[in-house]
Design goal:
heterodimer, A: alpha/beta, eight-stranded mixed β-sheet, B: mainly alpha, 5 helices, extended
Chain lengths: 349, 111
């Protein structure tokens, strides 16, 4: 499967995506705006609570082309963060109390400077999270050796696994994904990840494989633990439920399946003020592959950099100015405030 | 006016049934909400039971709602179809078991 960008699909244009979300149908035009919902609860303009998580998108290159990917990542994407930009990231982190560095992509492991950068971040004493698609850990020998490298640096590994069975997982992420994911999880377990007696944290990320919301995180975690233990003797620490945001390939799925209006309606009617207070953009900064700063990974994909008055590139890093910025919002933000809320760390309420 | 008895958009109007009788509707929805809370049965198990019952009472609104609910609660397609077969088995069995009554009556009437 090719990326929307390679296909020159009209949804590869972020401006067009925002136009669709706001104007595609009479129903969408009539929906309340996210800004209005925030005003109703005195949360507008939305401001940071202080940056705690420094999320780095190491590039859009990936060995997979999942149907729901909001990044439109794939083997045909060539955007990769340069060493110079990574050095700017290290410089920013060196002068900051930010505790957590969250590495994402694409497949972050495919960045040629991945190991070097992770070691440098680790030396700064930061907690490191790697967002792995699992299957990359079963490909070339250099990737197969990564679990030990992660363990050596006490990295938290947070992996995508959309479901505990093969059919639904493969439908969303491609044929063979489930078997390769299980193989990678077993390897991680074998070296101590996800085991009670170690401190090597292994978390799974659940995205609904379709036009529905994730259910209660605790209930799903119990079911995943029960099924993966029963079928494969696999253990893990936490399951994070993440709502699919109507962006890029998932937006394409919603449009092609005729589910967009109903899905947006579900997100908007499920607006939860408590979830809105805890949205991840309030304590996170997202660094794009070219060093541009964004309020979150989703705004990054919609090419909505941080507001104009704030430093907009990692080379201009100024934490206090970033902490006083106004967070940019649009209709996709309803995805993070529906139900129990959604963030890279799962439900927010 | 809709030209069919069932309109998918009517499902969202379920909560409006209190318009013609708020007190009883309120009692019903309080009860309904309590029934589906996590209890001795998990919310996922309750959603699967509701899905099965929806097929037995042949309620299109309920099938729509509890298909989504079962998916959201993490049920697999296999579990959902097994729930429908449970409903079908009981539904078919409930007809068949009355065959005993037919047989009894036949025997009563026969020489």
């Amino acid at each position: 499967m090719k990326s929307l960008k390679t296909l020159n699909h009209n949804l590869s244009d972020p401006a067009y995506q925002l136009h669709v979300l706001n104007n595609h149908s009479e129903s969408l035009r009539q929906q309340p705006k996210f800004e209005e919902k925030l005003k109703d609860i005195n949360l507008f303009p939305l401001r940071p609570t202080g940056i705690e998580i420094f999320q780095v998108n190491l590039g859009y290159m990936c060995n997979m082309t999942c149907k729901h990917c909001h990044v439109d990542a794939g083997p045909d994407r060539t955007e990769v963060m340069s060493k110079e930009t990574l050095q700017h990231c290290l410089e920013a982190l060196r002068h900051s109390d930010i505790s957590t560095v969250d590495l994402t992509g694409g497949a972050p492991e495919m960045n040629p400077h991945f190991r070097w950068f992770l070691e440098e971040v680790s030396e700064l004493g930061k907690d490191v999270i790697v967002r792995s698609n699992l299957t990359i850990l079963t490909t070339a020998p250099k990737y197969q050796a990564l679990p030990e490298f992660f363990a050596e640096h006490q990295v938290e590994v947070t992996c995508s696994l959309p479901f505990y069975n093969k059919s639904r997982t493969d439908r969303q992420r491609g044929e063979g994904t489930y078997d390769r994911s299980i193989k990678a999880l077993k390897k991680l377990n074998d070296i101590g990840y996800g085991k009670e007696e170690t401190e090597l944290e292994l978390n799974l990320v659940y995205n609904p494989a379709g036009a529905f919301l994730p259910g209660g995180q605790e209930g799903l975690e119990n079911e995943f633990k029960r099924q993966l233990a029963r079928k494969h003797d696999i253990t893990f620490n936490n399951l994070f439920t993440i709502t699919n945001l109507p962006i890029s390939r998932y937006l394409n799925f919603l449009l092609e399946s005729g589910n967009l209006d109903e899905y947006m309606d579900k997100l908007i009617t499920s607006f939860n003020p408590a979830a809105a207070k805890g949205v991840m953009c309030r304590n996170t900064i997202s660094v794009g592959w070219d060093g541009t700063l964004y309020d979150c990974d989703f705004n990054q994909m919609l090419e909505m950099p941080v507001e104009e008055d704030a430093p907009r590139h990692i080379s201009e890093w100024n934490e206090s100015e970033l902490n006083s910025r106004e967070i940019r919002i649009n209709q996709h933000c309803f995805g993070c405030t529906a139900g129990a809320g959604s963030s890279c760390g799962g439900a927010t309420t | 006016m809709s030209d069919t008895y069932y309109n998918p958009k009517d499902l969202k109007k379920f909560e409006d049934v209190g318009e013609f009788g708020p007190e009883l509707a309120e009692k019903f929805f309080d009860y309904y909400g309590a029934v589906f809370e996590e209890g001795a049965l998990s919310a996922r198990e309750k959603a699967l039971i509701a899905l099965a019952v929806s097929h037995t009472v042949q309620c299109p609104y309920c099938i729509d709602a509890y298909t989504s609910e079962s998916l959201e609660k993490g049920a697999s397609e296999e579990q959902m179809m097994e729930a429908v077969h449970v409903a079908s088995a009981i539904r078919g069995g409930s007809s068949l078991v009355h065959g005993v009554q037919m047989m009894n009556k036949t025997k009563d009437l026969s020489m």
